Structure formats: structure tokens, C-alpha cells
Q: What sequence folds into this?
């Protein structure tokens, strides 16, 4: 079992390795990867993602890290649509459970016009971009990691994607080590534990 800090250190080497950006599995699987970690390491992961993005984007001209925080995207869409204040007021009146479905409908989650998926995919033109997905725990239960991956599968064909997942990934996603999402078999573990 690798130490957590060692796993963080191996990310850069792995994503800059020859073939990572163009690689697909033997069965033509998508180039989706998951870096799972214990939820209590969230702040260290956030700091390392920020460090990696700055380091790689400034040092390498043939690759760019593009990071999308699902929670921040959700807030951005609600703000753009003029719903953020309404949602906050509704939460004060009805509680957190009362805003889940209205937010999901506003974001058009699971629909062809899913606004989170559109925000992620609209700026991805260069095939050399590597997509980092963060904010998985912050966006739950509104945005589900397996749904996001499934919806991105048909929209991201050339860019490798790394989801930073606060929980465990074996053959299924187990958020916070407790909440099991639907199975998702098309992703690979970025750095084994």
C-alpha cells in the first residue's frame, strides 16, 4: 500500500508519461482515470491539484491541465441563470432536501442539454488538454460522480480525464467510503493505493 504523499507525487509522472494523452485501452475504452483518496485528505488534494495545474501549464507547452470543480460550476450556472439567491431563500424556507430537485432541474442534469456537461466540454478543443474534475464531495448529492462520468463519456473522446474522488474506487465508486453510486467500469485507477 502506497503512502498518500507518494501517490500524490506520482500523478505528475503518470499524466506526463508518453501515451497517457493518446492512450485508450485494448478494448477501446475511454481515457478516464480516477484518483481516489480518503476524504480527510481533501485539502491536501486540492492544494496538489492547484500546484500541478500551475506547474504543468507553466512548464509544458504541449500539454495543459484544465480543472473543473463541479460545485463551482453548479454555483456559476445558478448565478448566470439568476437562481442562486432564489435557491438560497428556498433553502432557508424548505431546508436542504427542498432544493435538491429544483436545482437538478435548473442544471438539466441527466438530460442531453446538461448545463454542467456543456460547461466542461465547451472549451475543450486541443487534444492535448488533460481534464481534472474536482469538487465531487462538495457537489454531492446534487451532482453525482457516476452520472457526470457517464454523460462525459460520449462528449470527451480525445482528452484524458482524471476525477479526484474522495472515497474508494475499486470496481465501483464509494463516495466518502460510505455511499455507493452506480457501478462505473470504464475508468481506470490513476495511482493504485
A:
Amino acid at each position: 500500500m502506497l503512502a498518500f504523499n507518494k501517490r500524490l507525487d506520482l500523478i505528475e509522472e503518470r499524466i506526463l508519461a508518453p501515451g497517457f494523452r493518446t492512450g485508450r485501452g485494448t478494448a477501446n475504452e475511454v481515457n478516464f482515470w480516477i484518483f481516489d483518496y480518503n476524504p480527510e485528505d481533501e485539502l491536501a488534494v486540492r492544494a496538489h491539484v492547484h500546484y500541478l495545474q500551475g506547474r504543468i501549464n507553466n512548464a509544458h507547452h504541449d500539454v495543459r491541465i484544465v480543472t473543473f470543480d463541479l460545485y463551482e460550476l453548479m454555483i456559476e450556472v445558478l448565478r448566470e441563470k439568476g437562481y442562486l439567491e432564489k435557491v438560497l431563500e428556498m433553502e432557508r424556507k424548505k431546508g436542504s432536501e427542498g432544493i435538491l430537485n429544483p436545482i437538478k432541474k435548473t442544471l438539466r442534469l441527466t438530460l442531453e442539454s446538461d448545463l454542467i456537461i456543456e460547461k466542461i466540454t465547451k472549451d475543450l478543443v486541443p487534444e492535448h488538454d488533460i481534464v481534472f474534475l474536482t469538487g465531487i464531495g462538495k457537489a454531492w448529492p446534487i451532482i453525482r460522480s457516476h452520472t457526470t462520468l457517464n454523460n462525459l463519456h460520449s462528449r470527451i473522446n480525445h482528452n484524458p480525464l482524471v476525477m479526484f474522488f474522495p472515497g474508494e474506487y475499486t470496481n465501483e465508486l464509494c463516495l466518502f467510503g460510505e455511499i455507493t453510486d452506480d457501478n462505473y467500469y470504464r475508468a481506470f485507477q490513476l495511482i493504485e493505493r
Observations:
- The mean pLDDT is 87.
